[in-house]
Structure to design on (213 residues):
């Protein structure tokens, strides 16, 4: 076999190896990407399942709290600060019903329902203690910022600043707005996660005062 023929054969063999390697690489890459995409979908599904489980837990908790048949539990105590920097505890107000509302000025749903609370405060401030608790973290929410917000909107209810997260920790506040309704015995009668309508708020108040139909 002459050198020219050998050279041609080597070129053909090399070309075949190159073509085979090219197709093999494409096949393996496609399978790898497919597995990677499938893995990502599975992770998203897992996260969705966890989110659904968490949402279900919240809804289940809300259902349990909103059930009139559930037994009332003692309200966890906490200490916050008024506009003058004085300490105020929940236990200071036990003796008449208390409505606790956790909110922040950057929270749109909170801002939507605050006028309802202000109206309710004006009407029931002699019968119910309203504790409008601001989640004052010192960064996105500061005492000065909140005071300006209250002044601009001409709200008359008292604001309490949870600068040490005492109240938020006591009620495991993960979502706001959160409203907790406490009877005159210091027991949690009900709670509501998320924004509520004015009608819903007054319905809760009627139940708290024992004047619901």
């Amino acid at each position: 076999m002459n050198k020219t023929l050998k050279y041609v054969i080597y070129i053909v063999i090399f070309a075949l190896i190159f073509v085979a390697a090219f197709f093999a690489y494409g096949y393996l890459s496609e399978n790898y990407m497919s597995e990677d995409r499938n893995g990502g979908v599975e992770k998203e599904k897992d996260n969705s399942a966890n989110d659904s489980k968490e949402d279900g837990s919240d809804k289940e908790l809300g259902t349990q709290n909103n059930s009139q048949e559930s037994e009332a539990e003692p309200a966890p105590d906490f200490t916050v600060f008024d506009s003058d920097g004085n300490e105020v505890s929940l236990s200071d107000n036990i003796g008449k019903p208390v409505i606790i509302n956790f909110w922040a000025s950057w929270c749109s749903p909170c801002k939507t329902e605050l006028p309802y609370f202000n109206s309710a405060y004006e009407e029931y401030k002699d019968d119910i203690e309203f504790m409008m608790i601001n989640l004052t973290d010192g960064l996105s929410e500061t005492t000065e910022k909140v005071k300006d917000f209250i002044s601009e909107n001409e709200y008359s209810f008292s604001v309490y600043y949870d600068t040490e997260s005492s109240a938020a920790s006591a009620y495991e506040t993960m979502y706001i707005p959160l409203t907790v309704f406490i009877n005159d015995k210091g027991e949690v009668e009900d709670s509501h996660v998320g924004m509520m309508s004015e009608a819903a708020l007054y319905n809760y108040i009627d139940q708290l005062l024992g004047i619901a139909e």
Q: What stands out?
A: The chain has a mean pLDDT of 79. Helices lie at 3-66, 108-124, 143-153, 166-170, 198-208.
